[in-house]
Predict the structure.
Amino acid sequence: MQTRPLEGKVALVTGATSGIGLVTAERLAEMGAVVVVHGRDRGRIDGAVARVASTGGPPPEAAMADFASLSQVRAMCATIRARHDRLDILVNNAGLINGRRVITEDGNETTFQVDHLAHFLLTSELLPLLLAAREARVVTVSSNAHESAWAGIDFDDLTRRRAYNPYRTYAQAKLANVLFAYELARRLAGTGVTSNAVHPGGVRTRWGREAGAFSIGWALARPFLVSAELGARTSVYVASSTDVAGLTGEYFVECRPRSSSPVSYSEDAARRLWDISETLTGVASKATLPAAMEATA
Ligand SMILES: NC(=O)c1ccc[n+]([C@@H]2O[C@H](COP(=O)([O-])OP(=O)(O)OC[C@H]3O[C@@H](n4cnc5c(N)ncnc54)[C@H](OP(=O)(O)O)[C@@H]3O)[C@@H](O)[C@H]2O)c1
Protein backbone atom coordinates (compact mmCIF):
# COMPACT_ATOMS: atom_id res chain seq x y z
CA MET A 1 0.00 0.00 0.00
CA GLN A 2 1.24 3.50 -0.87
CA THR A 3 1.53 5.29 2.47
CA ARG A 4 2.54 8.72 1.17
CA PRO A 5 0.29 9.43 -1.81
CA LEU A 6 1.31 13.10 -1.98
CA GLU A 7 5.07 12.49 -2.00
CA GLY A 8 6.78 14.93 -4.38
CA LYS A 9 3.80 17.29 -4.39
CA VAL A 10 3.80 20.90 -3.21
CA ALA A 11 0.77 22.30 -1.36
CA LEU A 12 -0.02 25.82 -0.14
CA VAL A 13 -2.61 26.21 2.60
CA THR A 14 -3.69 29.76 3.41
CA GLY A 15 -4.72 30.53 6.98
CA ALA A 16 -2.78 27.49 8.20
CA THR A 17 -1.96 28.98 11.60
CA SER A 18 -5.23 27.93 13.19
CA GLY A 19 -8.34 25.77 13.02
CA ILE A 20 -9.28 24.04 9.79
CA GLY A 21 -6.25 25.32 7.86
CA LEU A 22 -3.73 24.04 10.40
CA VAL A 23 -5.26 20.55 10.44
CA THR A 24 -5.45 20.56 6.61
CA ALA A 25 -1.73 21.41 6.47
CA GLU A 26 -0.91 18.63 8.95
CA ARG A 27 -2.84 15.99 7.02
CA LEU A 28 -1.38 16.97 3.63
CA ALA A 29 2.14 16.87 5.12
CA GLU A 30 1.43 13.45 6.66
CA MET A 31 0.56 12.25 3.17
CA GLY A 32 3.97 13.40 1.96
CA ALA A 33 3.37 16.86 0.50
CA VAL A 34 5.79 19.72 1.04
CA VAL A 35 3.37 22.14 2.68
CA VAL A 36 3.77 25.89 2.50
CA VAL A 37 2.17 27.15 5.71
CA HIS A 38 0.66 30.59 5.23
CA GLY A 39 -0.10 33.01 8.03
CA ARG A 40 0.00 36.72 8.82
CA ASP A 41 1.91 36.66 12.12
CA ARG A 42 5.52 35.41 12.40
CA GLY A 43 5.08 33.82 15.85
CA ARG A 44 1.89 32.01 14.89
CA ILE A 45 3.46 30.81 11.63
CA ASP A 46 6.47 29.42 13.52
CA GLY A 47 4.12 27.55 15.87
CA ALA A 48 2.14 26.09 12.96
CA VAL A 49 5.29 25.11 11.04
CA ALA A 50 6.51 23.25 14.14
CA ARG A 51 3.20 21.37 14.39
CA VAL A 52 3.20 20.47 10.70
CA ALA A 53 6.86 19.37 10.96
CA SER A 54 5.97 17.08 13.88
CA THR A 55 3.74 14.98 11.59
CA GLY A 56 6.92 13.47 10.15
CA GLY A 57 6.22 14.66 6.62
CA PRO A 58 8.72 16.61 4.52
CA PRO A 59 9.93 19.83 6.19
CA PRO A 60 7.20 22.47 5.75
CA GLU A 61 7.88 26.00 4.55
CA ALA A 62 6.51 29.30 5.79
CA ALA A 63 4.85 32.12 3.85
CA MET A 64 3.67 35.36 5.39
CA ALA A 65 1.14 37.93 4.18
CA ASP A 66 -1.65 39.87 5.80
CA PHE A 67 -4.47 39.43 3.30
CA ALA A 68 -5.75 42.88 4.24
CA SER A 69 -2.81 44.10 2.14
CA LEU A 70 -2.77 43.13 -1.54
CA SER A 71 0.86 44.21 -1.89
CA GLN A 72 1.76 41.67 0.81
CA VAL A 73 -0.13 38.96 -1.13
CA ARG A 74 1.80 39.87 -4.30
CA ALA A 75 5.15 39.83 -2.48
CA MET A 76 4.38 36.43 -0.92
CA CYS A 77 3.49 34.97 -4.32
CA ALA A 78 6.75 36.29 -5.79
CA THR A 79 8.66 34.49 -3.01
CA ILE A 80 6.75 31.25 -3.66
CA ARG A 81 7.39 31.52 -7.42
CA ALA A 82 11.09 32.01 -6.72
CA ARG A 83 11.19 28.85 -4.58
CA HIS A 84 8.93 26.54 -6.59
CA ASP A 85 8.30 25.86 -10.26
CA ARG A 86 4.98 24.08 -9.63
CA LEU A 87 2.14 23.99 -7.16
CA ASP A 88 0.04 20.82 -6.97
CA ILE A 89 -2.47 21.82 -4.30
CA LEU A 90 -3.76 25.25 -3.33
CA VAL A 91 -6.19 25.41 -0.42
CA ASN A 92 -7.75 28.89 -0.27
CA ASN A 93 -8.74 28.65 3.38
CA ALA A 94 -7.94 31.89 5.25
CA GLY A 95 -11.03 33.77 6.32
CA LEU A 96 -12.71 35.85 8.96
CA ILE A 97 -15.96 37.51 9.97
CA ASN A 98 -15.46 41.07 11.15
CA GLY A 99 -17.56 42.74 13.85
CA ARG A 100 -16.87 46.21 12.47
CA ARG A 101 -16.70 47.66 8.99
CA VAL A 102 -12.98 48.17 8.36
CA ILE A 103 -11.59 49.43 5.07
CA THR A 104 -8.22 48.00 4.02
CA GLU A 105 -5.27 50.01 2.71
CA ASP A 106 -6.47 48.92 -0.76
CA GLY A 107 -9.87 50.55 -0.20
CA ASN A 108 -11.91 47.34 0.15
CA GLU A 109 -14.11 46.06 2.98
CA THR A 110 -11.88 43.70 5.01
CA THR A 111 -14.02 40.53 4.98
CA PHE A 112 -14.51 40.73 1.21
CA GLN A 113 -10.79 41.32 0.69
CA VAL A 114 -9.42 38.65 3.06
CA ASP A 115 -11.96 35.95 2.20
CA HIS A 116 -12.26 36.58 -1.54
CA LEU A 117 -10.09 39.25 -3.22
CA ALA A 118 -6.79 38.13 -1.67
CA HIS A 119 -7.46 34.56 -2.82
CA PHE A 120 -8.47 35.77 -6.29
CA LEU A 121 -5.14 37.61 -6.53
CA LEU A 122 -3.13 34.75 -5.01
CA THR A 123 -4.65 32.16 -7.37
CA SER A 124 -4.00 34.42 -10.38
CA GLU A 125 -0.41 35.07 -9.31
CA LEU A 126 0.25 31.36 -8.80
CA LEU A 127 -1.57 30.19 -11.92
CA PRO A 128 1.64 29.51 -13.89
CA LEU A 129 2.74 27.15 -11.09
CA LEU A 130 -0.65 25.41 -10.99
CA LEU A 131 -0.62 24.93 -14.75
CA ALA A 132 2.96 23.63 -14.59
CA ALA A 133 1.78 20.92 -12.17
CA ARG A 134 -0.69 19.77 -14.86
CA GLU A 135 -3.11 18.03 -12.49
CA ALA A 136 -3.24 20.66 -9.78
CA ARG A 137 -6.21 21.15 -7.47
CA VAL A 138 -7.56 24.44 -6.15
CA VAL A 139 -9.82 24.04 -3.13
CA THR A 140 -11.65 27.15 -1.93
CA VAL A 141 -13.10 26.98 1.56
CA SER A 142 -16.53 28.60 1.46
CA SER A 143 -19.40 28.04 3.90
CA ASN A 144 -23.08 27.19 3.85
CA ALA A 145 -23.41 30.79 5.07
CA HIS A 146 -23.25 31.65 1.35
CA GLU A 147 -26.89 30.53 1.16
CA SER A 148 -27.88 33.52 3.31
CA ALA A 149 -26.78 35.81 0.47
CA TRP A 150 -29.82 34.51 -1.41
CA ALA A 151 -30.21 37.73 -3.43
CA GLY A 152 -26.61 37.55 -4.65
CA ILE A 153 -23.69 39.91 -4.34
CA ASP A 154 -24.55 43.58 -3.87
CA PHE A 155 -22.19 44.83 -6.56
CA ASP A 156 -23.32 48.42 -5.99
CA ASP A 157 -22.11 48.41 -2.39
CA LEU A 158 -19.09 46.10 -2.18
CA THR A 159 -17.56 48.24 0.60
CA ARG A 160 -20.78 47.88 2.65
CA ARG A 161 -21.26 51.61 3.15
CA ARG A 162 -25.05 51.39 3.43
CA ALA A 163 -25.62 49.09 6.38
CA TYR A 164 -22.85 46.98 7.84
CA ASN A 165 -23.97 43.63 9.18
CA PRO A 166 -21.13 41.18 10.00
CA TYR A 167 -22.99 38.00 9.02
CA ARG A 168 -24.51 39.41 5.82
CA THR A 169 -21.09 40.72 4.80
CA TYR A 170 -19.53 37.32 5.53
CA ALA A 171 -22.32 35.51 3.62
CA GLN A 172 -21.59 37.61 0.51
CA ALA A 173 -17.85 36.92 0.79
CA LYS A 174 -18.56 33.19 1.04
CA LEU A 175 -20.90 33.40 -1.97
CA ALA A 176 -18.00 35.09 -3.76
CA ASN A 177 -15.89 32.02 -2.88
CA VAL A 178 -18.38 29.68 -4.59
CA LEU A 179 -18.87 31.93 -7.65
CA PHE A 180 -15.07 32.21 -7.95
CA ALA A 181 -14.49 28.45 -7.61
CA TYR A 182 -17.07 27.71 -10.34
CA GLU A 183 -15.81 30.44 -12.70
CA LEU A 184 -12.21 29.30 -12.23
CA ALA A 185 -13.30 25.75 -13.09
CA ARG A 186 -14.93 27.00 -16.31
CA ARG A 187 -11.87 29.08 -17.27
CA LEU A 188 -9.46 26.21 -16.55
CA ALA A 189 -11.54 23.50 -18.27
CA GLY A 190 -9.25 21.22 -20.27
CA THR A 191 -6.05 22.34 -18.51
CA GLY A 192 -6.04 19.53 -15.94
CA VAL A 193 -6.30 22.03 -13.08
CA THR A 194 -9.48 21.53 -11.06
CA SER A 195 -11.31 24.07 -8.90
CA ASN A 196 -13.88 23.20 -6.26
CA ALA A 197 -15.49 24.83 -3.23
CA VAL A 198 -16.12 23.21 0.14
CA HIS A 199 -18.23 23.82 3.24
CA PRO A 200 -16.41 22.44 6.30
CA GLY A 201 -19.46 22.27 8.60
CA GLY A 202 -19.87 24.22 11.84
CA VAL A 203 -16.41 23.92 13.36
CA ARG A 204 -14.95 24.78 16.80
CA THR A 205 -12.11 27.13 15.86
CA ARG A 206 -11.06 30.73 16.55
CA TRP A 207 -13.45 31.88 13.81
CA GLY A 208 -16.28 34.16 14.94
CA ARG A 209 -14.57 35.56 18.04
CA GLU A 210 -14.29 39.10 16.77
CA ALA A 211 -17.72 39.56 15.30
CA GLY A 212 -19.48 41.75 17.83
CA ALA A 213 -22.97 40.59 18.80
CA PHE A 214 -22.69 37.64 16.39
CA SER A 215 -19.87 36.25 18.58
CA ILE A 216 -22.25 35.83 21.51
CA GLY A 217 -24.63 33.60 19.55
CA TRP A 218 -21.74 31.72 17.99
CA ALA A 219 -20.21 31.08 21.44
CA LEU A 220 -23.53 29.51 22.53
CA ALA A 221 -23.34 27.19 19.52
CA ARG A 222 -19.82 25.97 20.39
CA PRO A 223 -20.93 22.73 22.14
CA PHE A 224 -22.69 21.70 18.92
CA LEU A 225 -19.75 22.37 16.61
CA VAL A 226 -17.39 19.69 15.34
CA SER A 227 -13.63 19.55 15.93
CA ALA A 228 -11.14 21.16 13.54
CA GLU A 229 -10.04 17.59 12.72
CA LEU A 230 -13.52 16.79 11.36
CA GLY A 231 -13.87 20.25 9.85
CA ALA A 232 -10.72 19.74 7.74
CA ARG A 233 -11.87 16.39 6.36
CA THR A 234 -13.64 17.72 3.26
CA SER A 235 -10.80 20.13 2.35
CA VAL A 236 -8.25 17.31 2.68
CA TYR A 237 -10.46 14.89 0.71
CA VAL A 238 -11.02 17.29 -2.19
CA ALA A 239 -7.32 18.27 -2.19
CA SER A 240 -5.97 14.75 -2.20
CA SER A 241 -8.34 11.84 -2.81
CA THR A 242 -8.09 9.86 -6.03
CA ASP A 243 -11.92 9.52 -5.81
CA VAL A 244 -12.29 13.10 -7.01
CA ALA A 245 -9.43 13.26 -9.54
CA GLY A 246 -10.54 15.38 -12.49
CA LEU A 247 -13.77 16.49 -10.79
CA THR A 248 -14.17 20.25 -11.10
CA GLY A 249 -16.74 23.00 -10.54
CA GLU A 250 -18.35 21.24 -7.56
CA TYR A 251 -19.35 22.27 -4.04
CA PHE A 252 -18.48 19.62 -1.46
CA VAL A 253 -20.06 19.05 1.94
CA GLU A 254 -19.05 16.06 4.10
CA CYS A 255 -16.85 14.79 1.27
CA ARG A 256 -19.73 14.68 -1.23
CA PRO A 257 -20.71 16.99 -4.08
CA ARG A 258 -23.83 18.92 -3.08
CA SER A 259 -25.94 21.70 -4.57
CA SER A 260 -24.97 25.21 -3.59
CA SER A 261 -27.47 28.09 -3.53
CA PRO A 262 -29.42 28.86 -6.75
CA VAL A 263 -27.73 32.26 -7.18
CA SER A 264 -24.25 30.68 -6.92
CA TYR A 265 -24.87 29.05 -10.33
CA SER A 266 -25.37 32.41 -12.07
CA GLU A 267 -22.67 32.62 -14.74
CA ASP A 268 -23.45 36.32 -15.23
CA ALA A 269 -22.79 37.01 -11.54
CA ALA A 270 -19.60 34.93 -11.65
CA ARG A 271 -18.29 36.81 -14.70
CA ARG A 272 -19.18 40.15 -13.15
CA LEU A 273 -17.43 39.21 -9.91
CA TRP A 274 -14.39 38.06 -11.89
CA ASP A 275 -14.17 41.33 -13.83
CA ILE A 276 -14.59 43.45 -10.69
CA SER A 277 -12.03 41.32 -8.84
CA GLU A 278 -9.54 41.89 -11.67
CA THR A 279 -10.07 45.62 -11.39
CA LEU A 280 -9.85 45.71 -7.59
CA THR A 281 -6.70 43.57 -7.44
CA GLY A 282 -5.00 44.98 -10.53
CA VAL A 283 -4.72 41.52 -12.06
CA ALA A 284 -3.85 41.99 -15.74
CA SER A 285 -7.18 41.87 -17.49
CA LYS A 286 -8.32 38.95 -19.66
CA ALA A 287 -4.76 38.19 -20.74
CA THR A 288 -4.02 36.41 -17.44
CA LEU A 289 -5.09 32.92 -18.32
CA PRO A 290 -3.81 32.63 -21.90
CA ALA A 291 -0.53 34.33 -20.91
CA ALA A 292 -0.03 31.94 -18.00
CA MET A 293 -0.80 28.97 -20.24
CA GLU A 294 1.66 30.12 -22.90
CA ALA A 295 4.33 30.57 -20.25
CA THR A 296 4.03 26.90 -19.28
CA ALA A 297 3.47 25.45 -22.76
N1 LIG B 1 -15.41 27.51 11.78
C1 LIG B 1 -16.51 27.31 11.07
O1 LIG B 1 -17.55 26.89 11.60
C2 LIG B 1 -16.51 27.57 9.59
C3 LIG B 1 -17.68 27.26 8.89
C4 LIG B 1 -17.71 27.48 7.50
C5 LIG B 1 -16.60 27.99 6.87
N2 LIG B 1 -15.47 28.29 7.59
C6 LIG B 1 -14.33 28.84 6.87
O2 LIG B 1 -13.19 28.04 7.15
C7 LIG B 1 -12.02 28.82 6.95
C8 LIG B 1 -11.07 28.60 8.10
O3 LIG B 1 -11.65 29.15 9.28
P1 LIG B 1 -11.45 28.54 10.74
O4 LIG B 1 -12.79 28.16 11.23
O5 LIG B 1 -10.37 27.54 10.75
O6 LIG B 1 -11.05 29.88 11.53
P2 LIG B 1 -9.73 30.31 12.32
O7 LIG B 1 -9.35 29.30 13.32
O8 LIG B 1 -10.02 31.70 12.79
O9 LIG B 1 -8.61 30.36 11.18
C9 LIG B 1 -8.63 31.37 10.20
C10 LIG B 1 -7.29 31.46 9.54
O10 LIG B 1 -7.33 32.60 8.62
C11 LIG B 1 -6.27 33.47 8.96
N3 LIG B 1 -6.57 34.88 8.72
C12 LIG B 1 -7.55 35.63 9.26
N4 LIG B 1 -7.44 36.90 8.85
C13 LIG B 1 -6.35 36.96 8.04
C14 LIG B 1 -5.70 38.00 7.34
N5 LIG B 1 -6.10 39.28 7.41
N6 LIG B 1 -4.61 37.70 6.58
C15 LIG B 1 -4.15 36.43 6.52
N7 LIG B 1 -4.71 35.41 7.19
C16 LIG B 1 -5.80 35.67 7.95
C17 LIG B 1 -6.03 33.26 10.45
O11 LIG B 1 -4.76 33.77 10.83
P3 LIG B 1 -4.44 34.08 12.42
O12 LIG B 1 -4.08 32.75 13.02
O13 LIG B 1 -3.30 35.03 12.34
O14 LIG B 1 -5.69 34.68 13.01
C18 LIG B 1 -6.16 31.75 10.53
O15 LIG B 1 -4.98 31.13 10.09
C19 LIG B 1 -12.48 30.26 6.76
O16 LIG B 1 -12.47 30.60 5.39
C20 LIG B 1 -13.90 30.24 7.28
O17 LIG B 1 -14.70 31.22 6.68
C21 LIG B 1 -15.41 28.09 8.93
